[in-house]
């Protein structure tokens, strides 16, 4: 069960087009962007498809527009996760913002989970009927999911005829990298007109989305490694260890302003130099310990001699004779005959 999968798992390398195709074919929808699933209703119905009867679809709102309505859908999804003992954390605050990367990652996880349940076989699930009967806004969603498909020849001129002069400009995102890349890739039209066909518009929109995903991914990676470096800096500033040679070497690398390999060599030299200073000092305590042992033995011998002399001086000749006779009568092996 793919309740917890790592960020380097193959599930997170599934492309946006494959995710959209999977959602549309499974639920009979017509989504064009992954972030359109930010309302949480799509996720609820996917869970209803793999676990029939588990999701209260009458509480799911496919027509959710406000963040409050979206949060209600995610509450339903969280309750389902709790029932099934799924420990996946739902980042609701990020998902309802409609950010492409966050919604893509969550839908990638959803696909992996659905594929692991019964081998992903949910062909017998009637998504249209389920939405119409139970969900709020399900009928409108079902109508949108089966649009009339005009011929390609008539669609292209109609799109070119009704497209405004600055329509493409309004769809551009606020990301500078994406805008610059799109501007550089736009073909120059012959008559100076800025009208594009539907295929060109779709290609540009897909390119913009991919660039936004790339920027979001790079920003997330940057923030992740910056947080790690900040944690290391805080640890090195602890009073208990900040003066250690190893910590000084880490700071040398951490605060280096130039990208030079010699910084690492200098840090290694600092550590090796400190070890060389410590090694001669290690022999000093051993010599001091030997001297202490010799002095202790000498003191013990002096004390024994002093005690024997004191004992001989305090005993009278009669007491000495009586002690000797007592030893003789007791049959002690110390007495020789």
UniProtKB/TrEMBL annotation:
GO terms for cellular component: microtubule; phragmoplast; spindle. Transmembrane segments: none annotated. Residues 193-263 form the EB1 C-terminal domain. Residues 144-154 have a biased composition (Polar residues). InterPro entries: CH_dom, CH_dom_sf, EB1_C, EB1_C_sf, MAPRE. It comes from the Eukaryota. GO terms for biological process: cell division; thigmotropism. Residues 13-115 form the Calponin-homology (CH) domain. Residues 131-173, 179-198 are annotated as: Disordered. It is found in: Cytoplasm, Cytoskeleton, Phragmoplast; Cytoplasm, Cytoskeleton, Spindle. Residues 184-197 have a biased composition (Low complexity). GO terms for molecular function: microtubule binding. Residues 131-143 have a biased composition (Basic and acidic residues). SUPFAM superfamilies: Calponin-homology domain, CH-domain (SSF47576), EB1 dimerisation domain-like (SSF140612). Gene3D superfamilies: 1.20.5.1430, Calponin-like domain. Keywords: Cell cycle, Cell division, Cytoplasm, Cytoskeleton, Microtubule, Mitosis. This is Microtubule-associated protein RP/EB family member 1C.
């Amino acid at each position: 069960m793919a309740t917890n999968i790592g960020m380097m798992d193959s599930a997170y390398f599934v492309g946006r087009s494959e995710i959209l195709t999977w959602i549309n074919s499974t639920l009979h929808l017509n989504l064009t962007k992954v972030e359109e699933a930010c309302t949480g209703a799509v996720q609820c119905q996917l869970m209803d498809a793999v676990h029939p009867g588990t999701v209260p679809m009458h509480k799911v709102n496919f027509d959710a527009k406000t963040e409050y309505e979206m949060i209600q859908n995610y509450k339903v999804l969280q309750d389902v996760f709790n029932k099934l003992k799924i420990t996946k954390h739902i980042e609701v605050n990020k998902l309802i913002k409609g950010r492409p990367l966050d919604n893509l990652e969550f839908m990638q996880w959803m696909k992996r989970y659905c594929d692991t349940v019964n081998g992903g076989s949910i062909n017998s699930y009637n998504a249209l009927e389920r939405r119409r009967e139970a969900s709020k806004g399900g009928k409108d969603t079902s109508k949108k999911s089966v649009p009339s498909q005009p011929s390609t020849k008539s669609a292209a001129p109609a799109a070119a005829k009704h497209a405004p002069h600055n329509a493409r400009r309004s769809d551009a995102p606020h990301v500078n990298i994406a805008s610059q890349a799109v501007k550089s890739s736009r073909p120059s039209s012959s008559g100076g007109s800025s009208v594009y066909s539907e295929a060109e518009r779709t290609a540009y929109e897909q390119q913009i989305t991919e660039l936004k995903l790339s920027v979001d991914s790079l920003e997330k990676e940057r923030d992740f490694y910056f947080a790690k470096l900040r944690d290391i800096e805080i640890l090195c500033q602890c009073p208990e260890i900040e003066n250690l040679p190893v910590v000084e070497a880490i700071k040398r690398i951490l605060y280096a302003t130039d990208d030079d390999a010699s910084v690492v060599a200098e840090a290694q030299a600092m550590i090796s130099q400190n070890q060389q200073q410590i090694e001669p000092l290690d022999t000093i305590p051993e010599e001091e310990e030997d001297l202490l042992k010799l002095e202790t033995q000498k003191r013990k011998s002096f004390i024994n001699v002093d005690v024997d002399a004191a004992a001989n001086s305090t005993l009278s000749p009669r007491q000495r004779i009586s002690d000797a006779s007592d030893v003789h009568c007791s049959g002690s092996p110390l007495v020789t005959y």
